[in-house]
Amino acid sequence: MAATEAPDSDEGEEGGRENNGRSxxxxxxxxxxRQGQYPAAGxxxxxxxxxxxxxxxxxxxxxxxxxxxxxxARLVDDNELKGLKGSQRELAIWYTLxxxxxxxxLLGFSLDFGRYPSMVCPWMENGTLHNYLNGAGKSWxxxxxxxxxxxxxxxxxxxxxxxIVHGDLSCSNILIDDNGDARLSDFGLSAFVPLAQxxxxxxxxxxxxxxxxxxxxxxxxxxxxxxxxxxxxxxxGNPCFMAPELYHLGDDSTHxxxxxxxxxxxxxxxxxxxxxxxxxPIDPIHAAT
Length: 289
What we know:
- The chain is an alpha+beta fold.
- The chain has 6 helices and 11 strands.
- It has a single domain (about 25-289), classed as Transferase(Phosphotransferase) domain 1 (Transferase(Phosphotransferase), domain 1), CATH 1.10.510.10.
- Strand 9 and strand 10 (about 180-185) form a beta hairpin.
- This is Protein kinase domain-containing protein.
- GO terms for molecular function: ATP binding; protein serine/threonine kinase activity.
């Protein structure tokens, strides 16, 4: 079961713009200036650096951007090939989706933050949906919450229409932009689904990227490699938003993330958006005892 477009959208965002004819992903290595000596934020597998983008590709000189840098120490066996393929996969999938208004734009990549390509995107000052709900979003009316849910549904429907499973959907992976609108992000656990299970075909990343000879890596990944890696990898993600069938209960069977498991995660998002700050504690449980 894949997500379908939310009805009665007043944003004109049904379906995304195709990437056909779009220029290749920009190498922004020489245009990124770090702000500070330490990451501004971080997740389970990556650090987020606040930087300035000084490039003709940015709307304004000195645009604040976020650079997502994979933590190499957390990669399995610190394997160079796996780490490179992981960053390639996320770049390829994110690029495939980033033209949609409900997906966080991917501006380009940088080779100056470690051994693997890092992803460059606009800085979202409002932060994650979860944090926003516990801050400025407390004043949201019910209509505002429905609007956000409709936007998330629109973005997820587009992801599924491109034969892609998000794989890690949660309120922490949805960002709020300057207009107060939702943007899907974090495609590190996303994967192209087998064509037999997909509702519509998707462009191969090989057709998307044209790589300059001077670059130190090749941003290309075929669909079969992506699906195979997804199926064989240990299940990862936010346990609060994972469908029950994804949990390993001591058996040797493979539990691959699907469109349906994304829908289950969206159900958890609905609960939080409609109920926060009532349904879950803001502070860790141990801090309240």
